Amino acid sequence: MSKIPKWKRELAKLAREAKDKPAKLGPDIDIQEFESSTPGQEVLSNLTELPEEVQKSAETVGISPQERERSGSFFQYDQSVILACAHKETPEVEVCSTSEALKKYDWLRDYWWKVVPVDMDKYTAFAETNQHHGYFIRSKPGARSIFPVQACLFMGTQRSIQCPHNIIIAEENSELHIITGCTTHPSTNSGLHIGVSEFYIKEGATLTFTMIHRWGRDFEVRPRTGAMIEKGGTFLSTYICFKPAKTLQMYPVAHCVGEKSTARFHTLLHGMDDSLLDVGSRAILKAKGSRAEITARAIGEGSSRIIARGHLVGEMPETKAHLDCRGLLLSEKAVIHAIPELEGRVEGTDLSHEATVGKIEEEQLYYLMSRGLNEEEATGLIIKGFLDPEVPGLPERLRMEIKKAVQLTTEKAL
Amino acid sequence: MSLLEVKDLHVKVGDKEILRGVDLAVKKGEVHVVMGPNASGKTTLIMTLLGYPGYRITQGEIVFNGVNFNEKPIHERVASGLFIAFQTPPEIRGVKLRDLIRIAGGRDPWDPLEGKKETIATPLLEKVGLDPATFFSRDVNVGFSGGEKKRSELAQIFAARPKLMVLDEPDSGVDIDSLKTLGLDLGDYIRENNCAALVITHYRHILPYIRPDKASVMCHGRVIVTGDPYEIFSKIEEKGYCEYLGVCPPDMKSLVEREKTYEQDSQVEKGTG
Ligand SMILES: Nc1ncnc2c1ncn2[C@@H]1O[C@H](COP(=O)(O)OP(=O)(O)OP(=O)(O)O)[C@@H](O)[C@H]1O
Ligand SMILES: [Mg+2]
Question: For residue A261, which phi and psi values (nearest 5 degrees)?
C-alpha cells in the first residue's frame, strides 16, 4: 500500500469533519442519492474518435473535436480522463489530469486547496475524499500561447456524480487562455456535478478562462472556484450558462493579492423552465492598485429563478471596482433577484455598482419592428444584443465561441 | 389612385383624443410636406401610420396601396413599402448599426464568423456621411449626436427602398452644412427612385432639396389646409401659426369658422389648379 503523505491526510481529516456541512447558499443536496461510480471509459488518442452525439454536445460548449486552433485538450467522460495533452507545437503549455500532476509534482501541494477551503462545505469535502481527476493546466514562465487550451467535463451516466478538482497555473509573465465546456450526453438528464477549480495567476501573467455550461433539467451543479492574482496579473473569467440545471449554485472568489492585479468576471445566464440559478462573483481587493469588474446579464424565461449576486470587498487604499448587473424578464413567472454588495474596509477604496431588472422596452421592440422584423425576430435581436460578449481582452476565437453559444440560445428561446 | 390615403382618422392615446379627423393623401412619387405647431399631432399621425401600439384608431381609416392598414402589424406595413424615420429613435444596446441597416434592407445581420467583407451597410454609411470605420460596429443610437441619429435613419431608408418614406423632422438638430449634404442625398434618392415622401418639418431650408409637390398644415389633430408648399410657408413665416390659423390661444369656435374658409379656399385652389 502506498503511503499517503501527511499533508493529504490532514486535508482528509478536515474534509471528513465537513462532510455534512451544508453550503451557505442554494438548496441542500443529499449526495448519497447519486450514483458514486460510473462505468470506465477508454482512453482515446483523438477526440474525433468519440461517438458523434458526444462530439455534437461537446461542440455546443465550445469544444472543437478536431482540436482546431487549440493549444491542448482535456476530456473527462464521467469519472474517466479519456484525453489530456498539450499540442506538440505548444510545449510551453502543460495539460494533464490533476491526479497525474499530483504524482509528478511534489510542489502541487502548495496549490491544493489553497484558494478554495477544503472544509468550505460538504461539496468541497466530498471533492477531497472522492476526487475524480480534473485538469491541470499550466503555462510556463513567459509563455505566450495564442490558441486556447480546451477542457471538457462530460457527463454520460444517469444520476451519477462527477467531481473533478482542477488546478490552473499561469506562471510569471505568461499568457494562458482556456475554454471549458461542461455538458451532458443527450440521453442523460440528471446527475450531480461538483467541480473544484483553483486558479493561480503569477506576477505579470494573464489568464482568461471561458466556461460554458449546458446541463439537463434534473442536474444539480455546485462548482467551487477561487483565484489568486499576484502583482500585475490579470484574471478574466467569462461564465455562460444557457441550458440550466435544476439548481445551480456557485460563487467564485478572486483574491487580488498583488499590487495592480486585476480580476474581471463576466457572467451570462439564461434561466428556463423551473430552474434555479444562484450565481455570484466576488472580488477581494487586498493590494494597492488592484481593480475588479463584475458584469452579469441574466435572462429569465418560464418560471425560472435567477439570483445574481455580486460582492466587492475593498481592503486596501487605491483600489477600485465596479459591479454591473442587468436582468431581462421574458415571462410573467420568471424572477430575477439582483443582490449587489459593496464592502469598503478602508478609506481610499472606490466601489460602485449599478443594477437593473425589467422586461424588454417596448420602444426598442417596436422600433426594430419598424425596420421590418416581426415581434419574435425583434425580441431575439434585443436578447442577442443584451448578451453581446463585449469582453475586452478576450481573444477573437473565444469571443466567437461565446457568440455561437448566444446564437444557439436565442434561436432556441424563440 | 393615391399611394397613401388617410380618411377621417381619429386616434386616441389612452383616453385622450389626439387626432380628430385627419384627411391626407399622398400620390405615388409625390413629395408632401406636413407642418404645424408643436403638439398638433404630426408625430401621432406618423406613429399611427406605422401601427405603433397605444395609438388607437377610433374612427376612419388608413389605406396604403389599396390595402386597409388599420389592423396590420408593424412589420407587414413595412413589408408593403412604408418606412418611417423617427423623430427620436431609441437607443438599443448590443444591436449594431450595421446589422440594423442590413435588416432594413431585408438582409440578415452580418456574421463575422463567415469572414466575408460587409458590402451592404458599408456603402450606405459612407453615403450618409457616417464613417463606416467607427459607426460600423456602434450600438444603435447609443451616444449618437442628434445629427448622427438623423443620418442613421436615412441610411436605413436607403437600405429599405420603400414606396413611401415618412420622415419626422429630418432637418431638426442638423447643422447648416450637414443639412445640405443630407438634403442633397435625400433629394437625389427621391428623384432617382421616384419614391413618395411625407416629410414633417418646421423649416423651409429643406424644401429646395426635396422639392415638395404639396404641403399640409396640421392643427389640433386635423389637417387644416393642403396646398402649394411655398405659398403656405411664406404665409406661415409672415404671420406665424397663430394668426395664420387663427387659433392662438386655442379657441375652438374660431378654429371651426376658419376651417370652413380654408376648406372653401382650398376647394377654389383645387378647382383652378
Ligand atoms: N403617449 C402619449 N400620451 C399622452 N399624450 C400624448 C402621447 N403622445 C402624444 N401625446 C400628446 O399628443 C399631442 C400631439 O403630440 P405629437 O407628438 O403628435 O405632436 P407634434 O405635432 O409631433 O409636435 P412637435 O412639433 O413638437 O414634434 C401632444 O399634446 C402630446 O402631448
Ligand atoms: Mg413631432
Answer: -85, 155
